[in-house]
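Record type: monomer structure entry
Structure origin: computed from sequence
Chain ID: A
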Amino acid sequence: MPATSDWIPIASASDCPPGTSIERVVDGRVVALANVAGVWHALDGLCPHQGGPLGTGQLCGTVLTCPWHGWQFDVVSGRHRLSPTVHQQVYEVRQRDGELFVRWPTVATLPPSDVAEQRGPIA
């Protein structure tokens, strides 16, 4: 794994057994971490419908269902199951020595609206 500052520890591998998902906070943002048959996936953990906690939802294969209103997302691509224009940000996950790390974007790689949040209002 590259020794760069953008790899952030997110959980122990034992925290998320195969077939489950959990919720974690990274840099003030909610992240859903899912284990699909020993392969970890991470995506934006707030459902775009009404902010439901995706990480506490039901994982079935690669599909994560929001516990609030049933919106479903593929944890590999972040895409909504029914609407191709709706998708969640996905993050790369690595395991090292039983710990999971998520590759977190730097301010320079965040979308413009997120950059404004990080730096304050644009004048």
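Annotation 1: The chain has a mean pLDDT of 87.
Annotation 2: The beta strands are 7-12, 21-26, 29-36, 39-44, 58-60, 63-65, 72-74, 90-91, 93-96, 99-103.
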